[in-house]
Design brief:
Helix content is 48%, strand content 10%. It has a 6-stranded mixed β-sheet. It has a two-stranded antiparallel ribbon with strand order 1-2. The chain has a two-stranded antiparallel sheet with strand order 9-10. The protein is globular and about 75 Å long. The structure holds iron/sulfur cluster and zinc ion. Zinc ion (ZN) binds next to helix 12. The site of zinc ion has 8 residues, from helix 12.
Length: 344
């Protein structure tokens, strides 16, 4: 006998919610998913009426669902937000060029303005060129640092008030685990925050994560049943082994106990930092003006390393050398040598 939806009791259930275990029909699942996102937005006071909000859009499932749900909720609850899509083109042939085609279709489907900023125009380097120089070991460090800043720069060009990103509960839990394993207290505190007010190390423009409590499995189900148009291929340069292990570990935990994802997030939220622990002080980069806790922001150091043919400059701690870079002084042969021979 077919199972009835445990919410409306009328229709046939088509899925078991990974988050709650309830058997639901399609419409009741859509409603539950959207209402929970609305609750997250309202209780976290993520937006104010009249704001212009850029949705960080990659063409992947998370940001596609985010764009769709934001549009639905903005209309259903009259948030009064001016929504637009903001994409970053990292310059990865065979990956980002295809996923940007998806974003362009989403722009038509959801009737939202779209802005694309590229690494090439902002930094003079594509990820394809960076990988040629640095190889496949630290490429994601470059990519992550550049992306954060690129989103901000795009948002500033568009004069938006906020950026929202498609980070889901699994992403946040993974990041909590990674920061615990690395002992990175400053990031641990930041990564669980549902919104940052700009200048807090997460970017210059305020950011928020409306899907912070949405399970990845539910996002996939939502996209599937809504037949949303998204791109699901992995990046061709995706070695990120460390995150991969954290992800696999979390999936194992989830298989035994589905609430593990939420438990890890709550643990991260409730950890307090003992007194006397030095937290980085935010200032601004003396070269580009971007927020930074050092004289030079990470992006400028990475870029300087690429342009000087010393890509390791930005990997590891070489703060000592920042003064020289700022003063445009050449490095000594010993310093150059160290950056060349240092193991990546
Ligand atoms: Fe960039 Fe690495 Fe992500 Fe690829 S996997 S898009 S290189 S951060
Ligand atoms: Zn800078």
């Amino acid at each position: 006998m077919p199972v009835r939806c445990s919410s409306c009791a009328r229709s046939r259930a088509v899925l078991k919610r990974p988050k709650t275990g309830h058997s639901l029909c399609r419409d009741c699942f859509f409603w539950a998913f959207e209402e929970e996102t609305h609750q997250t937005i309202v209780s976290g006071r993520l937006f104010n009426r009249g704001e212009t909000v850029a949705i960080g859009a990659s063409g992947g499932k998370d940001s596609t669902v985010l764009a769709y749900v934001m549009k639905v909720l903005n209309e259903r609850y009259d948030y009064g937000l001016n929504l637009l899509l903001l994409s970053v083109d990292e310059g990865i042939t065979g990956y980002r060029d295809d996923s940007l085609e998806t974003v362009k279709r989403n722009q038509q489907q959801y009737d939202l303005p779209l802005k694309i900023v590229s690494y090439e125009e902002l930094y003079g380097w594509t990820m394809d060129a960076i990988v040629k120089q640095v190889g496949l070991k630290n490429n994601c460090t470059f990519c992550g640092v550049f992306r954060r800043q690129a989103l901000d720069r795009g948002a500033i060009m568009l004069n938006v008030d906020k950026i929202c990103t498609g980070h889901n509960a699994d992403d946040v839990a993974e990041t909590v685990l990674m920061n615990v394993l690395r002992g990175d207290v400053a990031r641990l505190r930041r990564c669980t925050a549902i919104s940052t007010d700009g200048g807090g190390g997460d970017g210059a423009v305020p950011r928020c994560k409306p899907l912070k409590y949405a399970y990845e499995k539910e996002i996939v189900l939502y996209a599937y049943f809504k037949k949303l148009d998204y791109f699901s291929t992995e990046c061709v340069y995706s070695p990120n082994a460390y995150r991969g292990h954290a992800r696999a570990f979390l999936k194992d935990l989830e298989a035994i106990r589905p609430s593990s994802i939420m438990d890890v997030i709550h643990s991260g939220e409730n950890l307090s930092v003992k007194e006397g622990v030095k937290m980085p002080v935010q200032g601004t980069c003396s070269r580009c003006g971007y927020i930074s806790s050092q004289a030079l922001c990470k992006s400028c150091v990475l870029l300087e390393g690429l342009n000087r043919g010393l890509p390791k400059l930005g990997i590891g701690k070489h703060h000592r050398l920042h003064g020289k870079i700022l003063a445009q002084q050449p490095l000594t042969p010993a310093e150059e040598n160290k950056l060349k021979t240092l193991e990546f």
